[in-house]
Amino acid sequence: MLWGVGLAAPRSCVADLSRNRSLSLGWCAGPEEPPPAFYGGEIVAFPLSGGGGTMAALGSDSWWKKTLYLTGGALLAAAAYLLHELLAIRKEEELDSKDAIILHQFSRPKNGVPSLSPFCLKMETYLRMADLPYQNYFDGKLSPQGKMPWIEYNHKKVSGTEFIIDFLEEKLGVNLNKHLGPHERAVSRAVTKMVEEHLYWTLAYCQWVENLHETQKMVSLFGPFSDLLKWIFCHLTKGIVKREMYGHGIGRFSEEEMYTLMEKDMRTLAGLLGDKKYIMGSTVSTVDATVFGHLAQAMWTLPGTRPERLIKGELINLAMYCERIRRKFWPEWHHDDDNTLYESEESSEASKTYSPLQDFSFYSRTETFDEEGNSISQTPDTDYTGHSLFDSDVDMDEYRDHEQCK
């Protein structure tokens, strides 16, 4: 094998330095294109085919075609596999959406929490609060608007939790806010916007930037390269969150300033809730699905972070609020330490164990089906252990009695 040495310019050319005293330039451009000025490059070595011309090897059509075919094919295969693993996370049995609510959302995480997305958790909690039967579809496919979650009902696709709720109220006649007056409805919407447009970003920063290593452990991906795919997915999400936060404006502040804003929002929610069972009083409303979907992230998906310490410490009424909603509307979402009022900061890491969330493809509060399609009798106020799930089980009065006994 004979080798030549040349100087590779930034343009598509090689200057042969090995045999000719004068520079012999071989251009890869078309014959009509005049050779541009040569400003320098890097020393390279290249094989010579049978001692032929300098560009004999590089100019071979078959050599270039084979290289392009192999490289392009490998890249396309890798891209197709990654796309399949990231988007087609898991397939569920497809049902016709005629008179059935099909909820598209991300797959369940590994820590027993229904979703790492506050909007997915909000939407599914709302359906349970409204007692609307629905089918989960964990395909990871975004809506035509690029949103998640989204629903299909009678072959109509609706995305955006606010528009989904408006659509279901119009089509099915449900309304969790019918007991609210005009002033209360206005307050409810203001709280919703504060949570979704402000608190959301600070929690997302904590989840996908500062606490990414813990979040990566919770992400559920399967396959021979699941660890690599999780790393890629989480770091891609981190970049997206940081870029969108910067565009929103809140990402232009320092980390300490962002956490200051987060604490103000959480203290506002705690002050608004007070001793009430729900945000707007003794009866659940739509805003509770929103607030729960976001606070649940701080409560159960951000171990050891400032949001978790705040909600389980100083703002304990928010923790009790989350527990009330979890026990009433998520009976299968079971923790091994459900008998405790709350988890103190001194709790050991070993005691923080979780049971996997049962993954029903079809859910109704009054009747649920297991994976084999068998009916499971289950009332909205009891879980599978027979324990009562009434609101009074986790109440501020009980918390005060617990504190007095210390």
From TrEMBL:
<feature type="domain" description="Metaxin glutathione S-transferase">
    <location>
        <begin position="263"/>
        <end position="325"/>
    </location>
</feature>
<dbReference type="InterPro" id="IPR012336">
    <property type="entry name" value="Thioredoxin-like_fold"/>
</dbReference>
<feature type="compositionally biased region" description="Basic and acidic residues">
    <location>
        <begin position="397"/>
        <end position="406"/>
    </location>
</feature>
<dbReference type="Pfam" id="PF17171">
    <property type="entry name" value="GST_C_6"/>
</dbReference>
<dbReference type="InterPro" id="IPR050931">
    <property type="entry name" value="Mito_Protein_Transport_Metaxin"/>
</dbReference>
<comment type="similarity">
    <text>Belongs to the FAX family.</text>
</comment>
<dbReference type="GO" id="GO:0005737">
    <property type="term" value="C:cytoplasm"/>
</dbReference>
<dbReference type="InterPro" id="IPR036282">
    <property type="entry name" value="Glutathione-S-Trfase_C_sf"/>
</dbReference>
<dbReference type="InterPro" id="IPR026928">
    <property type="entry name" value="FAX/IsoI-like"/>
</dbReference>
<feature type="region of interest" description="Disordered">
    <location>
        <begin position="369"/>
        <end position="406"/>
    </location>
</feature>
<protein>
    <submittedName>
        <fullName>FAXC protein</fullName>
    </submittedName>
</protein>
<feature type="domain" description="Failed axon connections homolog N-terminal">
    <location>
        <begin position="1"/>
        <end position="107"/>
    </location>
</feature>
<dbReference type="InterPro" id="IPR040079">
    <property type="entry name" value="Glutathione_S-Trfase"/>
</dbReference>
<dbReference type="InterPro" id="IPR036249">
    <property type="entry name" value="Thioredoxin-like_sf"/>
</dbReference>
<dbReference type="Pfam" id="PF19333">
    <property type="entry name" value="FAXC_N"/>
</dbReference>
<dbReference type="InterPro" id="IPR045796">
    <property type="entry name" value="FAXC_N"/>
</dbReference>
<feature type="domain" description="Thioredoxin-like fold">
    <location>
        <begin position="118"/>
        <end position="210"/>
    </location>
</feature>
<dbReference type="Pfam" id="PF17172">
    <property type="entry name" value="GST_N_4"/>
</dbReference>
<dbReference type="InterPro" id="IPR033468">
    <property type="entry name" value="Metaxin_GST"/>
</dbReference>
